[in-house]
Design brief:
Number of helices of chain B: 17
Shape of chain A: elongated
Number of domains of chain A: 2
Number of domains of chain B: 2
Shape of chain B: elongated
Distance between the termini of chain A: 35 Å
Strand content of chain A: 25-35%
Number of strands of chain B: 6
Oligomer: heterodimer
Radius of gyration of chain A: 24 Å
Distance between the termini of chain B: 22 Å
Strand order of the largest sheet of chain A: 5-6-7-3-8-9
CATH topology of the largest domain in chain A: Rossmann fold
CATH architecture of the largest domain in chain A: 3-Layer(aba) Sandwich
Strand content of chain B: 5-15%
Helix content of chain A: 25-40%
Structural class of chain A: alpha/beta
Largest sheet of chain B: 4 strands, mixed
Largest sheet of chain A: 6 strands, mixed
Structural class of chain B: alpha/beta
Chain lengths: ~290, ~400
């Protein structure tokens, strides 16, 4: 069942068309990647989904209907620009944000204490947030996103400004949430993170959708005309090749449009070449991104 | 409703336990106390309270201590009788007295008394001696008559319907309406600034985005406004408490209970006016904070609706002299000036019920409109980081709902 359905949504700010006829759905328990270069309209789409902005046209359904207070309490949101009260003690700030999400105050206190211990922040609970390091503030923001056990988590650029240790921590948390059946929307422009985490993606640019579907399926769509081959000895001369690059005894063959990988395999067998590796090169999302967002 | 309560209590605690709030809370009474002390010291340094002597050659004056129950030997300026002008002159030269009077033997015929002093004596000293002479001249009359003649009449001006009265010389009745208005003004300025700053800060540090995905903007704003109204009232209650302590302290030494009285009806009306005024102004502060880009700009714009608060003070003479004139009536109906103007006006005149009703009604409508206005501004402006909302967007082009 879809937790989010966005149907032909558009949004203008003055003369700027920030979102242009975008449709997608997010299924229960999946990690959905919302991708695009900076300024593509990712954050605007998230704000439309969260009912911060109203669309100029189109329909949005979240958790089975229009946004209301009950649904707000079932969603965890981590904005790109982290927003916590800088001059308020950490624990009070988190308990307040949890109580706004409908968690009773005593329960919120106990949950926040558990999270602070889990994230090694319990000794900082009385400190004002501005006194914490960036990594600690990031952890605090994650606690604020998850403390009310949301069914749907929306994270906007979750890895920006994080060191490798905290990046791994965030990834582990997202995987853990997925294993518990929580649906996640992740907006990012860091493609390698998407490859690792996202089941499906929507790639947008200038507010317009460019690619939409399963991550692996999209990568396979862009595969097929590049081969990675390693042979014992020198690679024999082959027909239907546009160019050959050699790197660490592996050859990267760019095939002409009329040549299929099977044609190359037949030629290698016919020439009695000992093949150690024969792989259709699937492009990285980075490569697809660059190719599509030109 | 629970969410509104959470927002309200969070905002309240956040502001009340700040050093800035405590400083603001204590600075007004400390400032007024320091001012009063300075004035007292200045006055005291200008007034000579040394004793005054007199030489009675007319035989009219008897022992001042036993005259008609009046204390001429009290703590202020003491009166000392001398047998001869030489003795009095000696005391004057020795600076034991600031001056002495001489009543010649033919005083009753001439009505002339002599004053001998090194410098002009204080008004208190001359008043004291006049009282002594009057009390002696009236000594044969019953004491009640003497008291009435020496203290004069108490003129009470009462409205024809009997609902209002004003006692001549009642400084408290005159001062109270202005004090009430002034305290409201200070409270509004002190606390609404917190709200404005809080909203602009939330916008700047982007906490707003997190908040509006947890609670609807209208509820968030209602909680914030109620929180800041509670902060304002905390301030007023603390000031009122300090004033009460001061009153009890002064009352222990000087019985001022008869001078200082407040009608409960007046107090109730002032409270209602101030709550409504506070809500209206706080909501407008939110609207400005949400639509403008930074604190400085926001403060400039808020002066547009905080300046009218001063109008009743500028037109104070018109309100006192013509409390039912067009200026006073207009100011007490216009929502921005109504809380203070009505509170002042009602201290000096009997006001028709329909005018109070109209004033309160317009304030309620204005407060409700201000909340709606703030809600719209909030939705439009809350996520415009570093940008202001244009009037065109505000007046209808911005799609909200």
């Amino acid at each position: 069942m879809s937790v989010i359905e966005v149907d032909r949504v558009s949004k203008n700010f003055g003369s700027l068309r920030a979102v242009d006829d975008v449709s997608f759905s997010v299924e229960g328990g999946e990690v959905f990647g919302l991708l695009g270069p900076n300024g593509a309209g990712k954050t605007t789409i998230i704000r439309l989904v969260l009912d911060i902005f109203k669309p100029d046209s189109g329909q949005i359904s979240i958790l089975g209907g229009l946004m209301d207070q009950d649904k707000r309490e079932r969603i965890g949101y981590m904005p790109e620009e982290r927003g916590l009260y800088q001059d308020v003690p950490l624990e009070r700030c988190l308990v307040y944000l949890a109580s706004l999400k409908g968690v009773p105050k005593s329960e919120a206190k106990s949950r926040v204490q558990d999270y602070l211990e889990r994230f090694d922040l319990s000794s900082y609970r009385k400190k004002q947030i501005k006194e914490l390091s960036k990594g600690m503030q990031q952890k605090a923001q994650i606690i604020a996103t998850l403390v009310h056990d949301p069914e749907l988590v929306i994270v906007d650029e979750p890895f920006s400004g994080l060191d490798p240790v905290n990046t791994k921590m965030v990834k582990d948390i997202l995987r853990d949430l997925r294993s518990k059946g929580v649906s996640i929307i992740m907006s990012t422009h860091q493609m390698h993170q998407v490859e690792e985490l996202c089941d499906r993606i929507l790639l947008i640019d200038y507010g317009h959708p460019l690619l939409y579907g399963e991550t692996n399926h999209i990568r396979n769509q862009y595969a097929g005309h590049t081969l990675l081959i390693r042979t014992k000895g020198t690679l024999p001369a082959l027909d239907g090749i546009l160019s050959v690059e050699s790197h660490n005894s592996t050859y990267r063959l760019n095939l002409s449009p009329k040549t299929s990988p099977q044609d190359i395999l037949h030629q290698l067998v016919a020439k009695d070449t000992a093949v150690e590796r024969f792989e259709i090169a699937v492009p990285t999302l980075d490569e697809i991104f660059i190719q599509v967002v030109k | 409703m629970t969410n509104i309560w959470h927002v309200m209590s969070f905002e309240y605690v956040r502001h009340v336990f700040r050093k800035r709030f405590l400083f603001g809370l204590l600075s007004l009474p400390l400032f007024l106390g320091a001012m009063a002390l300075v004035v007292l010291l200045l006055v005291r340094s200008e007034i000579n309270l040394d004793p005054v002597g007199y030489v009675d050659e007319s035989g009219l004056l008897t022992d001042p201590g036993s005259l008609a129950g009046q204390d001429f030997q009290g703590s202020w300026v003491k009166l000392i009788a001398f047998d001869s002008q030489d003795e009095a002159q000696e005391a004057l030269q020795a600076e034991q007295i600031q001056a002495y009077y001489v009543l010649d033997s033919d005083y009753l015929e001439t009505r002339q008394a002599k004053l001998i002093a090194l410098e002009a004596p204080s008004g208190i000293a001359t008043g004291r001696f006049s009282q002594l002479v009057r009390a002696n001249l009236l000594a044969n009359l019953p004491s009640e008559v003497v008291t009435r003649l020496t203290q004069g009449n108490q003129l009470i001006v009462r409205s024809s319907d009997g609902t209002r009265q004003f006692i001549r010389g009642d400084w408290w009745g005159f001062l109270l309406p202005f004090m009430v208005g002034f305290i409201f003004l200070i409270a509004v300025f002190a606390t609404s600034g917190y709200l404005l700053q809080a909203v602009v800060e939330e916008k700047e540090n982007q906490t707003m985005e997190l908040l509006v995905t947890s609670i609807s903007p209208l509820r968030l704003m209602a909680g914030k406004i109620l929180g800041i109204v509670a902060v304002g009232w905390t301030q007023l209650i603390v000031w009122f408490g300090l004033a009460l302590i001061l009153f009890l302290f002064v009352n222990a030494f000087l019985d001022i209970t008869d001078w200082v009285s407040v009608s409960l009806g007046y107090l109730a009306l002032a409270v209602v006016l101030f709550v409504l005024g506070f809500i209206m102004l706080s909501a407008l502060m939110v609207a400005v904070g949400a639509t403008l880009a930074d604190v400085q700009e926001a403060q400039q714009v808020t002066s547009l609706f905080t300046l009218p608060l001063f109008l009743p003070f500028w037109f104070a003479f018109q309100i006192i002299n013509h409390p039912n004139g067009p200026v006073a009536v207009g100011l007490s109906i216009f929502p921005f000036t109504a809380p203070i103007a009505l509170a002042i006006r009602i201290g000096f005149a009997s006001i028709p019920g329909w005018q109070i009703g109209l004033s309160l009604g317009l304030l309620i409508i204005s407060a409700a409109f201000a909340i709606w206005f703030a809600g719209r501004a909030f939705r439009l402006g809350m996520l415009r980081y570093g940008q202001r909302v244009s009037w065109r967007e505000f007046l209808g082009e911005g799609k909200l709902e």
